[in-house]
Amino acid sequence: MENTPLYTALRDFAAQNPLRMHMPGHKGKALPGPELAGYSSIDFTELPPTGNLFDGGGAIGAAEALWAEVFGMEHCLFLTGGSTQGVLTALTLACPPGSELLLDRGCHRSAFHAMALLDLKPVYAPRPWLDKKAVTGPISPSDVENLLKTHPNIKAFCITSPTYYGVLSDIPALAAVMHRHGGILVVDGAHGAHLPFLGIDHYSAADLVVVSAHKTLPAPGQSALLFSGKRFSHADLCRAGSIYGSSSPSYPMMAALDLCRAHMLEEGAETYQKTAEEVAALRRDFPSLIDEDAPLDPTRLTLLSPDGFAAQDQLEGLGVWPEMADRGHVVLIPTCADGPADFARLRQALGQVTLGPCPAFPPPPELPEQAVTLRQALFSPGKDCPLNQAEGEIAASPIAPYPPGVPIVAPGERISKKTIAYLDRIGYNNGCRICVDNCV
Ligand SMILES: Cc1ncc(COP(=O)(O)O)c(C=O)c1O
Q1: Residues 79-102: what's their mean pLDDT?
Q2: In this predicted structure, what is the pLDDT of residue 402?
Q3: Which atom of ligand 1 is nearest to the CA of 85?
Q4: 110-130 residues labelled b (16+ CB within 10 A) or e (exposed)
Q5: Is ligand 1 within 6 A of the CB of residue 378?
Q6: Residue 439 has pLDDT above 70, yes or no
Q7: Phi and psi of 12, rounded to 5°?
C-alpha cells in the first residue's frame, strides 16, 4: 500500500532492531497468544522516530493530514478512545463551561457525559416521528433556526448523523443556520466514517466532526477520528483531545488508521459501492427503512419486524449476528468487508425470518421538567428503583428505550406519571436509576 507515513515510519524503525529500554514492557517481542504475536513489533511509545500524538507534526501529523483531505476538513486528530473521546473533546472545544447547548436528544451518552463534565445547559432540538416505521426522522434546519432565535445565548449545536437506524440530517443546511447565528456545528458521525469513501460529502460544512473508524471501516475497536474546519486549529484538537485520551495512545491503532485510509482509497471505496448496491437490493426485497421514509446512509440495513427481538433470535439461530434489535427493528451493519458470499448467506437467512410492518408505537411524549442540572444528577449518588415507584423522583441516568432510541427521561429530569404511563404502554420495564435526596 502506498502513502502510509505513520505505518511506514513505525515499520522502518522496528526494522532497525532498536534496543527498547522504554515502555511498552513487551519490548516488541511476541505477546502471549498466537493471534497477538505480530502486534507488538510496531507498538512503540513517544520517541523521535515515532512522534507524539498530542504534540502534532511528524509521521502522525502527516497521516492525520491525509485523513483530513479525504473528509474535506482542515485538521484531523487520531482518537484511540473511540468516538466517546471525540464527542467529549468536540464539546469541550465548542462549549464554554456552564453555557447552553442545542442538542439532538438522540445523542450518545458521551454527549450527556460531556454536558455533566462541562455543566452545560441543554436545549433539545426536536426530531419528527416517522409513525409507520417507528423511528425518528432528520432534524429540520428551520426548527434549529427558530430555536436559535428564542435562545440567543446558544452558540453550539450537537447532532448525531447518521443515527443508529441510518437516518441522515442535512448537515450543510444546519451548518449554514449555525454559522448565520455565529454558532458552531458539532456532528457526531460515529456511524458514518465510510460516507466520504462512498463519495458522499456529508460532513465538510460542519465545524467539528467525530467518526468511529471501527464501526464501519476496516479498523480495530476504539479507533476513531476527530475533524475540524477552519474554526479550530490542530493545536486546539490536540489540547482538548489530550484531556480525555490516554497519554500512551496505541501506535498499532494509529498505524491501523493510516493503513485503513490507504486501503479504502486503493480498493475499499469500490467495494463499499458494491455493498451499497447489495443493501439497496435487500431493502427492495425485505421490509426495511427506505429512502422514501428519510434520507439514509446507503449501507445501513434497518429491517422492520412485528417482533424485532424474535427476528434477532431467529437470525442468531441461523448464525447471523445483527448489530442490535428493538421491538420493531433489526439493525444490520454491512460494510466493505462483506463480500458476495456474505450477502448470499444473509439473504438466505432473511428469507427464514419473520419480517413485516413494525408494531404501532406512540410518538415519544413531551419533554419532562428539568428539576436539577445534568451535572448534579449524573454526579449525585443514585439508587435503582422500579419504574412504577419512581413517580416524582429525579432521574440519575437516562431512560432510553429503543425505539425511539432517545432518552424519554434525561438525567436531572423529573419522572412524571405521564412518562411512566408511556413507558408502560411501550412495554419498557427495565427500571431506572434515581437521585438520592434530590441531589441537593
Ligand atoms: C451515535 C454514537 N456516538 C458515539 C458513540 C461512541 O462511540 P465509540 O464506541 O467509538 O466510543 C456511539 C457508540 O455506539 C454512538 O452510537
Answers
A1: 98
A2: 81
A3: 11
A4: bbbbbbbbbebbbbbbbbebb
A5: no
A6: no
A7: -65, -40
| Amino acid at the residue 26 | H
Number of compact structural domains in the chain: 2
**Residue type at 101?**
L
Nearest to 361 by CA among 311, 303, 405, 426: 426
Q: What single-letter amino acid sits at 386?
A: P
Q: Is the CB of 80 under 6 A from ligand 1?
A: no
Mean pLDDT (the chain, rounded):
95
Could you tell me the residue range of the domain that residue 176 belongs to? 5-263
Q: Is 84 in the pocket of ligand 1 (CB under 6 A)?
A: yes
pLDDT > 70: percent of the chain: 99
Which of 245, 263, 281 delimits the end of a domain? 263
How far is ligand 1, taken at its centre, from the CA of residue 22, in Å? Answer: 33
Residue-wise DSSP of 237-300: HHHHHHHHS-SS--HHHHHHHHHHHHHIIIIIHHHHHHHHHHHHHHHHHS-B--TTTS-B-TT-
> What distance in Å separates the CA atoms of residue 259 and residue 263, rounded to the nearest whole number?
6
Show the cell assigned to 162: 447518521
- For ligand 1, whether the C-beta of 108 sits within 6 Å is yes
Report field, pTM of the whole predicted structure over 0.85: yes
List the beta bridge partners of residue 435. 382
Domain stops at, among 209, 233, 263:
263
CATH of the domain at 389: 3.90.100.10
pLDDT for 38 equals: 87
What is the spatial distance between Cα 365 and Cα 129, in angstroms, rounded to a whole number? 11
